[in-house]
Amino acid sequence: MKLSQQVAIVTGATQGIGLACAKRLLAEGASVMLVDIKPEGAAVAAELGAQARFFAADVSQKADVDAMVAATLAAFGRIDILVNNAGVTHAADFLDLTEDDFDRVLRINLKSMFLCGQAAAREMVKHERGCIINMSSVNAELAIPNQVPYVVSKGGINQLTKVMALNLAPFGVRVNGIGPGTILTELAKQAVLSSPEARNTILSRTPLGRCGEPEEVAGIAAFLASADASYMTGQTLYVDGGRLALNYTVPVKD
């Protein structure tokens, strides 16, 4: 097991990509603190075994983030890995988007990664080791007209990943990102897979001809957290079925 005796925090961990990452890190031998604003995460963690714990937090709030770090240290004694995964979307055309909704998405998607990354890194640098993984998106590069704050937040995450990596490299802490394409999560089903027509639009831009599974993103997270990626920092790996390489559309199978 590649992550034996290591301790990970995964935010947005009660479903979708976050839950898949938590399960994969556990399978690789890590102890995992699952973090989510949803209190039902306690039952999810209980099902995953003794090496999984749950902490309820709004990771866009510094007090909650500080408490999350303290709880992880109390439970496991160290922090080796942070998977910054919490995120939301909000659909609205640019002219109709409210300031409150713009601020809310940026606070949850981007500010939370700064807060969690800083708090975890302060522990990691004490031991000159650690790995932070920020969950970005192909929408850091590609825009969706009615997903204004989501697209902006993901672009910001890519730059945050780079500047964190540069700042923390002297302390032995690596920072990388993952940019998923369309992954079969509840978030994606609500945002971009809401109808057969929407599905066909997505698949027409995906050379591999299918959506991804959360476990396929989790595999990349496990790789980035492991010694196999020991010389990687400041990178964002796109898990997108070939979408960013495509300059046209492809046929869609029924």
TrEMBL record:
<feature type="domain" description="Ketoreductase">
    <location>
        <begin position="6"/>
        <end position="181"/>
    </location>
</feature>
<dbReference type="GO" id="GO:0016616">
    <property type="term" value="F:oxidoreductase activity, acting on the CH-OH group of donors, NAD or NADP as acceptor"/>
</dbReference>
<dbReference type="Pfam" id="PF13561">
    <property type="entry name" value="adh_short_C2"/>
</dbReference>
<protein>
    <submittedName>
        <fullName>NAD(P)-dependent dehydrogenase, short-chain alcohol dehydrogenase family</fullName>
    </submittedName>
</protein>
<keyword id="KW-0560">Oxidoreductase</keyword>
<dbReference type="InterPro" id="IPR020904">
    <property type="entry name" value="Sc_DH/Rdtase_CS"/>
</dbReference>
<comment type="similarity">
    <text>Belongs to the short-chain dehydrogenases/reductases (SDR) family.</text>
</comment>
<dbReference type="GO" id="GO:0048038">
    <property type="term" value="F:quinone binding"/>
</dbReference>
<dbReference type="InterPro" id="IPR002347">
    <property type="entry name" value="SDR_fam"/>
</dbReference>
<dbReference type="InterPro" id="IPR057326">
    <property type="entry name" value="KR_dom"/>
</dbReference>
<dbReference type="InterPro" id="IPR036291">
    <property type="entry name" value="NAD(P)-bd_dom_sf"/>
</dbReference>
<dbReference type="GO" id="GO:0006633">
    <property type="term" value="P:fatty acid biosynthetic process"/>
</dbReference>
